[in-house]
Amino acid sequence: MVLIGAVATLAVLALLTHTGVLWLQSKFPPQGELISVGGGVLHVVDLGPRGLAEPPIVMIHGASSNLRAMQAPLGDRLAQQHRVLLVDRPGHGWSFRDDLTNSSPAMQAQAIGEALDRLGVSRAIFVVHSMAGALGARLALDQPQRVAGLVMLAPVTHPWRGGVGTYNQVMTTPVIGPLLAHTVTLPLGLLLTEPGARAAFTPQTMPVDYVDASATPLLLRPRAFLANSWDLTTLNEAVAEQAARYPQITAPTVLIHGDADRIVSVDVHSRAFAAAVPQAKLIVLPDVGHMVQNTALDLVQREVEALIATTVTKSHAALH
């Protein structure tokens, strides 16, 4: 009887999850173009004016989120005067990756490069947040000709002590992880999404409408949640492998990080990266948490536009 009850409970939870996925996908539909790349499909939203004599801005979100976390307010504001490309990382938002276990920054950088080639973008300013710091660094290492400048917001760049949460380890366990993802993750996650997002803003206050405005609940779909867990559980090893190459980065780089960030340590990551990269500029914000693109909006915009201006000046000088 106990076994029958457990199976019945899982069946009900699986049905609730399936229904919840349909509801989430109707509530937060794709906004941009779906581009086929090796190993999957990338969702890219293309905003702002075309045909400018400057590189576009490519914005890449961190863990447990999607491109809308970079769109409002920063991406929308930059798009008033610049071309802005917002990317759902492989496996997140409306992007899909065939192999959820293939989560490396190298793979994700390759996929994004392919999508940009399809869009005719050979060179860009990259704005990356949190976990995507590792991805931005990898783009600068593997595709240096593509990276005109790099703005890193509270980035992950180096190995750190500690883990990424027991539940992420469990989710990458064969059989158990997929079973949980298709039954309990979505119902339970709906209760925990808002407190989790609020913690990312600490000590600042999260905007009242942030969870819906950023479409954060898309994370709770089984494949997205599993992809996120694989990203996080393999990240420490990935940054440990690539960190020794950071002195090779030639792109002008700006790092902006709050010293009250409880999610990504400014000392372990941004200070170490700035010390390793020849052209890196580090800005540490006192009493600011992890969501730099929201908290320091004006500053981030100024630094992005300063990099664009520098790139345009260099291009003009090269022509003459």
TrEMBL record:
Residue ranges occupied by any AB hydrolase-1 domain in the UniProt entry: 55-293
SUPFAM superfamilies in the cross-refs: alpha/beta-Hydrolases
InterPro entries: AB_hydrolase_1, AB_hydrolase_fold, AB_hydrolase_sf
PANTHER family found in the cross-reference section: MONOACYLGLYCEROL LIPASE
Name the record gives this protein: Pimeloyl-ACP methyl ester carboxylesterase
